[in-house]
Amino acid sequence: MSGKKKSLEFSSNTLPAMVTVGPVVVIMTLLIAIPLIFVAVMSFCSIDEFYNIQFQFTADNYLRLANPDYVKIYVQSLFIAFFTTLLCILIGYPFSFVIARVKGKYKKILYMLVIIPFWTNSLIRIYGWRSFLGTSGWLNSFLMKVHLIQEPLDLLYKNGTTILGMVYCLIPFMILPLYTAIEKLDDSLLEASSDLGAHPAKTFVNVVLPLTAGGIFSGSLMVFIPCLGYFFVSDILGGGNSDVIGNLIERQFQSGNNWPLGAALSIVLILVTLIIVKIYQRLGGDMDALGV
Amino acid sequence: MRKKIAIFLAAAMLVASFTGCGSSESKGENGELNVFIWTEYVSESAIAAFEEESGIKVNVSTYSSNEDMLAKLKSEAEGTYDVILPSDYAVEYLIAQDKLETLDKDALTNLSNISDTYLDPSYDPGNVYSVPYEGGVCCIAVNTDKVEKQITSYDDLFDESLADSIVVLDDFRAIIGLTERSMGLSMNETDPATLSEVEEKLLKLKNNVKLYDSDSPKSALISGDCSVGAVWSAEAALAMEENPAIEVVYPEEGAYVFMDNWSVPKGAKNYDNAMSFINYMLSADAAKMNIEDFPYLCPNDAALEMMGDDYVANEAKNVPADVISGGEFVKYLDSDSLAIYDEMWTKLKE
Fold first, then answer.
1. CB–CB of A240 and B212 under 8 A?
2. pLDDT for A133-183, tens place per residue?
């Protein structure tokens, strides 16, 4: 009985479903599924002497990924991503708190300050940092003018500069979910905590932090993952001295001329991303909070 | 009423877009030509002048690395492009793969403008498949205000006094190549034992390199962030114009030389037009326009005679002939050797 009802429902829904979901399925298949499958297949191919891709199964590309030099770069990438995320939380949390708590036009102004940089290409903004921090850049010129320093500071082309650039590029992805989480915070809970005699610090640790943990998680995910691939930041601000996984991939598709190896590296990056998302879900993260 | 206006506007836009398409794809009176060239490397006015003179419509597509170009050639249907502008090793690679048409020398009457120094190159003996366009050298640029040491060779780049002060091209063939030259080796070594010695020396450069930059290494030299550079000669020339303390040094071991060349890919549909185009680019007028817009090294003697002193007297632009003849081109390497180079580079950059 119920089976029959279901099939009836199905048939009456088929046309609308095809019209509404169909195009999405087609687009997803054409633009995401097929290219991904192609990358996966390519990662098991080999190349001939002229770097042409040979459709001949080999696991060599994956074996080469265990190369200690590559491992060093994975670790370096994770290190850069970790510190970038940490800094984004430390800077983003208080900032989001302020946006969520101020009223009226100040809230709008602060919110726009986060959004507006998005309207300019991130490459241009990163080049801006380069001329700001350079030996004859604005910062050094200013500090020397006010006689705080005698010699220009050497600020560019270090791991720290790469992390600075990553934080700068990615902090909006931390602030927006944090803002949403903090905005939802119920004031009466804070009052209750304070009425029951809790010190503000204690209220923060025991009430505020657990209630906004979802925002921290989703923000961290949105910051950590792009960090592994943002090769242009490490190229421009790190001076190419601190490669991330993205640099390795880019090189195999360019001067390295080994697309199958590049494909294998991409697959590894996708797997790392999936693992991180899984950890996020295990920790109770909400996929909807990612806005994906 | 509003709906009608909307429909009318939409229809008008549709028609406009069709006519827009039509005009951009229309052929010239003498047909068309599809050229595939480096970005920021061929003067637009030279191309426009060719169109006017020949009545051939030129459709330009661009690339920003030889590897991009080669990948596009592989993936697009044969006959998509009529003229390409590959560098030396890419010409050699395409010849080895039988991907180029031979050039009709009878049609290339302006080839006599090209200096003998640049003809009959190792990558294409007898210029059967390619003719030179512009080129350059991986030279050393030194800021003499900041560097006391007299720098004369690639080997000097490894000197301890230059710690954390060099900008080098983010290009592993160039930097591993100059390491090889500094050891008296060829830039195209493939013997694994030799390459492991090269690797040992290359890693000593790590301490001296502050910045890897192929896009605009001159910026770091001009701003003073780096005091020495292993950069393309044209970049050095632009840096020298901004800061007179910067000097160009051609390494005594013999420099890394590159040359970009006009070639015709196999299966080109407009071969005769391609010959007219290449011949025009070899003319003194066109070469002058190109060199004025993009002051790389000019193999065209007839154009050189027309250039002013700011080009001819500048050693970084008008590279001395003995630097070219004493230099070496990079060759394409088989995939196994290339993998060794790539791994050395990864070690340097980790």
1. yes
2. 998 899 999 999 999 999 899 899 999 999 999 999 999 999 999 999 999
CA distance A236 to chain B (A): 8
Inform me whether the C-beta atom of residue B29 falls under 8 Å from chain A C-beta atoms: no
**H or E element at residue B228:** strand B228-232
Among the partner-chain residues A72, A235, A255, the one whose CB lies closest to the CB of B67 is A255
pTM: 0.86
Instruction: Identify the burial level of B192 via C-beta atoms within 10 angstroms of its C-beta, where 0-12 means exposed, 13-18 middle and 19 or more buried.
Output: exposed
CA distance B349 to B206: 8
- Give span(s): CATH 3.40.190.10, chain B: 2-133+260-298, 136-257+327-349
Both tokens assigned to A209? 């932090």
Question: B181 by DSSP, 3-state: which?
Answer: helix
Using one digit for the tens of pLDDT, what is the confidence trace for B96-122? 999 999 999 999 999 999 999 999 999
- Chain B CB contacts of A253 below 8 Å: 67
Q: How far is B252 from B229, CA to CA, in rounded Å?
A: 16
- Across the interface, which of B224, B335, B347 has its CB nearest the CB of A49? B335
Structural domains of chain A sorted by starting position, each given as residue range(s) with its CATH number in brackets = 68-290 (1.10.3720.10)
Residues of chain B positioned with their CB less than 8 A from the CB of A73: 346, 350
Which CATH number is B136-257+327-349 given? 3.40.190.10
Decide: residue B136, CB within 10 A, 0-12 exposed, 13-18 middle, 19+ buried.
buried
Contacts 24+ apart (CB under 8 A), B309-315: B314/B237, B314/B240, B315/B248, B315/B250
- CB-CB under 8 Å, A255 with B342: yes
Residues of B in contact with A77 (CB under 8 A): none
Work out the minimum CA distance from B89 to partner chain A, whole angstroms.
12
CATH of domain B2-133+260-298: 3.40.190.10
Count the Cβ atoms, other than its own, within 10 Å of residue B309: 7
Tokens of A156: 């560019």
- Pick the more confident residue, A114 or B27: A114
Contact B335 A241 (CB under 8 A): no
Q: What is the mean pLDDT of chain A?
A: 89
Are residues A135 and B342, on separate chains, in Cβ contact within 8 Å? no
With CA atoms as reference, the chain B residue closest to A158 would be: B210
